[in-house]
Input
Amino acid sequence: MKLLDSWYAVALASSLKPEQPLAVQLHGERFALWRDASGGVAALLDRCPHKGASLSAGRVNAGVIACGYHGWCFGADGHCSSIPAQHTGEPMPRRAHTRAVHCREGYGFLWLWWPRDPQSPLPAAAALPPLPPVGPVPEAGDPEWRNLEGQVEWQAHWLRVLEAFMDLTHAPFVHSGSFGAMAPDQLMPEEQWVQDDSLYERVLAPRDRHYRADQGRGLWALFNGDERPDDKAAGTAGDAGVQHIQLWLANVSLVRVVFGDFRISLLTAHVPIDDGQTLNLWRHFRSFLRTPLADGNARGRVERFMAEDQRMVETLTPREPDVDGRGDLLLASDAMTLGLRKLLRDKRSSGLLV
Ligand code: FES
Ligand SMILES: [Fe+2]
Output
């Protein structure tokens, strides 16, 4: 299943190096991304029209991408600008071009536009909608936050993965070895909505139940005692914090846990490599223990709970969720999953989900 006329976050912006193109995969196709002369990002189908080499295996020279096999050069519009082996003055062959794709940068990701009809002419960039309004996400270099990034590939359909990140009630079971150890089985959302192409949910997160299990161990133990956050600052009553969960179509989720000054945000792009594989690109922000010495511990925690989800999500059948709900027995407590599937059904009736 593909959402059409939609922006997809497909790579971490930090993974794009100046002279080296980057290969990304989306819905079974490969694209080569690079920075053009203006510093913007450009993307082409990752296939050279000469003999079919991967353009992403080439180089970037003065803002154009040069195929690594015979050096044909291409600009961001996909047209070949130079064929080194051809005599000067010979006309450029008419078919010396490859498909260009719209690409943008935002929220620490690189995004590709997946059009309704990939074969139709490329629309003007100004005619496209803006990137989804993801946030709040700390700016790069904000001294209030420490940021880590990573990625992990799951053998699961991307919509199953999106649903897992919106799913509250699995925490005490899937994450019983980590932060879910003390989570209550029934966690009632305080607020929930679906608006435009976004779903949102807010729940109270009782600190004792969610986090006590973690706070006694390792570097995180430092957080106990004097550094305990002020609950009043969080606008919450008693020993509780707030958890915000939000999704923006096509493929980005944000989970924010706020206990006063103790804040964690996890921004994840769930990239549909194809119908059986999803690449999770994560950006993790923490407002405490910002020393690099705590990075290994924080990264280990993110990787551990991602692995806990992966273990379960990879077993789900049918592999592709039935958006009409016939394949699963969903209850009121699955409101976010129901909301997402309703959104997808609406897309399907507008011809935007195929
Ligand atoms: S295959 Fe790309 S230049 Fe020959
Ligand atoms: Fe989970």
Notes: The chain has two domains: 6-118, 146-349.
